[in-house]
Fold these 2 entries.
Entry 1:
Amino acid sequence: MKTLKFKLYNHQQNRYLKRSINAAGVIYNHCSALHRRYYRMYGNHLNCAKLQSHMTKLRKRKPFWPTLGSQAVQELCQRIERAYLLFFKPHKKGVSPPGFKKIKKYKSFTLKQAGYKFIGGNRVKIANRVYQYGNSREIERMVKTLTIKRTALGELLMIVVVDDVSEQTAKFKTGKIPGFDLGWKTFLTISDGTKIELPQFMKQSINAIKTASRQHSQKRKESANRERARKNLVRNHEDVANLRCNWFWKMAHKLNDKFDVLCFETLNIKGMQRLWGRKISALAFGEFLQILQWIATRKAKQVVFLWRGYSSSKTCSDCGHVLESLDISVREWRWSSCQSINGQDENAALKIQAVGVSTVRLGDVRQARPAIAV
């Protein structure tokens, strides 16, 4: 599958799509209430087919509900059922059932087989109304789903999921297989000694964000001034996100052009966020790895992730000695076994490279022991 994102042009007709999103929020809350009532009475989740049949009859009697297509209502019912099936799984801990959502903050609705039609050029027909969008790329494959999403600024996006059958096997062109260590001191440390720093977009804009946040909190609730202040705050956050995303795409293209197999260590990002908070959130490791994998698939490259429990920093890249404990504040030390001096990030990148090469079966992780003179 391949996802394409387009922005709808601002027009008075967009209010009909916004009404449909609001109707989707009302229907979602109604379905959640039915599920909760059914669970209190019978101790199980409501069958999706019964819920869809009930919603089909109910849509005809409720005002504004018919503005949302039947395909979108069916997708809402299926989404809630998937959430309840996940909630009832015994091995899933800490998963709560779907809750209620504010109508103003409800974001999207999805159409599957019907309810839309691409007319040609940059026009799409949804519910007998024609909308224009920024046609930045051609939709070549068969469309699977179409989603209308409302952003925090009130703008509308059209997200199209199409078939993508271009599956390619990994091709080795450069013959380079490095290891990468992600860190909060240095964003990327490569096993060949290269260090890549991430521009501190959040740090550069933090004063403007704090000012906008303070102005938003001082405005009276439900007032027009508060809404303008909220949009100003959202724009500041979006500027940071767009700059960081642009840097991620450029860096991911650069790395995939330079290397064949890219080896990374699997990180516990949520645990790191609990320890260091905004420092880790501003780096957006998960977003970068997702973009890197997507580009690697398109360029027939390979991304390898190591087991999370492997201690790359505490294992010597020369002799294989493993430390019992290592504080994160210690950035460089001398190994007692081989007397070599290694930095924490450089040593981790070398070990990730060795294990990654062994994972793709292009080498062995074991170190050759020197011969003992007799």
Note: The radius of gyration is 26 Å.
Entry 2:
Amino acid sequence: MIAGRAVVLLSGGLDSATAAAWAKAAGFEVAALSIDYGQRHRFELEAAGRVARALGIADHRTIAVDLRAIGGSALTDATAVPKDRVAIGADVPVTYVPARNTVFLALLTGFAEVLGATDLVIGANVQDYSGYPDCRPEFLHAFETVARLGTRAGVEGAKFTVHAPLLHLSKAGIVRFGASLNVDYAATLSCYDPPAAFVHCGRCDACRLRRAGFAEAGIPDPSRYES
């Protein structure tokens, strides 16, 4: 039974693919939005397309918002992506993109409003919000208020809900959950500094969390790694 329409923020990574699969399994009619924001790991946009096709998401749109114009992140300027870090999540890393999820959720809300949807889905989780302030539960809850107050749909009585189904899962928990939903993780890309399409560097924070997640989950990792 269709639960209604939902819009998913689809980056092409492990987390967003799992969140999209959750929305499908929950019975939503899913549309997906990917953002080309000038990220150095633009190969993830190809991954997003593969994930959308694998999940049967017919309405998948990619829009461009060039955040390189403001910079301030290793993902959008010339700052080196950290490699082989030991204390992941202990501080806000240089891969934090200023206000990225605020911008992305605003775009997702606009997409939802056009489609008549009020359910917004994002793959934020506990290992993100330990280092990224815009992945915290408080931020996601606060954004529901922003969406209600700042849209015509909200003023007319629509209640927007931000779903973060992975919020309290570890990376291993996400991998297990996605495996139960038959997510094709070979179609995804998590790396912040990929040397080639669908090849992970193996050393950035995202790669290390991904590899550890599969190892801890006891599930074979289908990813390709340079190192």
Note: The longest strand covers residues 28-36.
